[in-house]
Amino acid sequence: MPNQPNILVILTDQQTHSALGAHGNPRVQTPHMDSLVHSGLSFWNSYCPAPVCGPARGSLLSGRLPHETGVEVNGPDVRPGIPTMGVHFRQAGYRPFYSGKLHLGPRPLKGIQQLGGMQGFEFLCDEYPQGVQPQLGSDTDPIWAEHAAEFLHNQSPQETGAAEPFLLVASLHNPHDICYWVMEWHHIVDIAPDSDLPPLPANFQPVADEPEFVELCRHRTEYGPEMSWTHDWGETEWRRYLYAYDRLTERVDQQLGRLLDALEESGLASNTLVVLTSDHGEGVAAHKWVTKLMLWEEVVRVPFVMRLPGSVPQDRIDRTHLVSGLDLLPTLCDYADIALPPGLHGQSLRPVIEDPALPGRASVVTELQAFMDDDTKKGRMLRTARYKYLVFSHGERPELLFDLEDDPGEMRNLAYEPTHQEALSEHRKLLKREIEETGDSFSFPS
Q1: What angle do CA 64, 18, 280 make, to 5 degrees?
Q2: Beta strands at 316-324 and 95-100: parallel, antiparallel or unpaired
């Protein structure tokens, strides 16, 4: 269709919702992300499908939960037969392209790749070009951004006669480098002795009577081992970690700026839907947590910003509606006038964007498989308008219930308070219904 927009999805890695100047964080300078927020719409309550790279990405690209894609830990590809975003858009006449980190199955090379057993995106370059340090976004992001920016410049109406619109996923790596900084790769961010270190967050201390499952996760040494490096940290080390994370966020913002500049210079900005989101968040010292693989707000809540001139309102922050990363694919399909694929658990956000009075989602679910060598050790989160319910499959005190209106820092667990048993029971029932409807194998503790 002639009015179908081009689409640019910018995916950062491990960016918590608050790591954005326009979201009220005075410690981080993110002018390019801020420009998207001010020229578009930002959802305040956006949650990842899983708090770790591969599972979250499999869900973002397929619109299905991790237990459905078969990607519940890092490593696997999406199950054969489950079509991904590139497949849907290619079949609908779009030209789908990808630049950067995928983290699903074998590392893709330049050219059209198979995801989920079907041909999807065309990769603009190898996921990890020869000669770069594959772990570090500080090395990979400039290369990936260069390929994506070059592609955008080449889509200028003066440069191409292609009638089909494009979909480009530009998947950048930072602030993921914080994982390695925590494990003493301190050269990644140089912190001068006189640096103005951030204060510790108000919810720095662990929750009273922390679930035994969470304590178990603090001592992982193989899958997600970063927590084990923090046990001897004092206040200064925690504040230095926050400083390093802010600087890494600023680095990815610089690369994002190259993409937005290229889009403007190509003359395509007015007809391109831009979405900025992240695969999952970062602990940022809440409850003495670093990096990922847990269900705290800071780890599961991520940016979700949209811009499309003339169709998406400018300079609006939606603080009401719940959003899941599962909603990305159906939302893109809706704006591209592509029929929604069957079997998705995501919902298009277009209706609530055009009519904010609509209720939208009643709840959001996030899945956690916390150990690679034991697929029975899982956690589940269900967020409703006011409450957030967590439950773990193993250990003592396995449930948490927070009233996020009164306690946004998740400091008071209401699950074992007599005055909140009705809310606890209601959220148990809601999660059990979700589990049954989606064929999830999660087992509630006895």
Answers
A1: 25
A2: unpaired
Question: Could you give the 3-state DSSP secondary structure of residue 277?
Answer: strand
Which residue positions in the chain have pLDDT lower than 70?
1-2, 116-118, 157-163
Q: Are 239 and 199 in contact (CB under 8 A)?
A: yes
| pTM of the complete model beyond 0.90 | yes
User: For 408-434, what is each residue's pLDDT tens digit?
Assistant: 999 999 999 999 999 999 999 999 999
Residue 196: other Cβ atoms inside 10 A: 8
For residue 175, whether the previous peptide bond is cis, meaning omega lies within 30 degrees of 0, is: yes
Contact 72, 367 (CB under 8 A): yes
Q: What is the pLDDT of residue 372?
A: 93
- For residue 171, what are the CA distances in angstroms to 61, 99, 276? 12, 6, 10
pLDDT of residue 306: 98
